[in-house]
Amino acid sequence: MKEVCGRDTLIERTVIVVQRAWLENHDGLDAKALCLKLDRFVQGNRAALAMVRVPSEAEERSRAIHRQREQLVGARKRLEAQGRSLMVNHGVEPVQQWWKRRAFSRLHVPEWMRAMLSNAQPILLALEEKIRALTVQLQSAAGPNQLRGLGLMTSVIIDREIGDWNRFSNRRQIASYTGLCPGEYSSGNTRLQSCVTKHGNPRLRAALVELAWRLVRFQPNYKPVLKWRAILAKGALATGAARKKAIVAVARQLAVDLWRIKTGRLRPEELGLIN
Fold this sequence. Notes:
Blueprint: H1 7-23, H2 28-42, H3 57-89, H4 101-105, H5 111-140, H6 152-162, H7 171-178, E1 182-187, E2 190-196, H8 202-218, H9 223-227, H10 229-232, H11 240-262
Antiparallel strand pairs: 1-2
Helix pairs in contact: 1-2, 3-5, 5-6, 6-8, 7-11, 8-11
């Protein structure tokens, strides 16, 4: 989603980027290309440079909480996988969540392996404690009367990644920001659509796709779910690629509908959504 941040501000930032490209990387080609684009923009070609919205400091602070939680979850998964890999490599049946106190006390592994696993266990326990505390903090920040299936955590993540719903003026802008729009290569009478662009915010995109799968179960009367029910229904005779395309379509429309709800353009009941 392109949003005007001010012509003078854009020119100043482009000049800074050009200077860094030249001073830090000594890349004359990149510096020259940026200068040419800046010249075209100053001469009136508004498509030469894309003006983007810079989040405020408050928005960045609010985003940092769930992003840190995401990083801690990733670190926990990596350490847990390393422990299971150690077991598999030495012919021991891997144990899920082996690092938890009860499971660790019952592990049937050689002493040398237990000693190696005990190096990571306290770290995993500490990570789990921090993740649980951040989860409670984020869920407590969710608004009341959430839609069924939305989830407290997901609602907070989506709201904080968006920042300000009112900064979008039409449905195309919010759909483009999610990166869930198909790429298009058209010329004359030929029209070719490719996979989604994946531009914009990747965390928002992941949250929307996850939420779309939940709405298939918890919001069966939601209009996009009704449209794609034949493909997304449990036991439907559809290929994996077809199901992926369908759920992406639901997630893209969901982003637009959430924008309409958050900005007061529509009520959830009009879309078949219930609390």
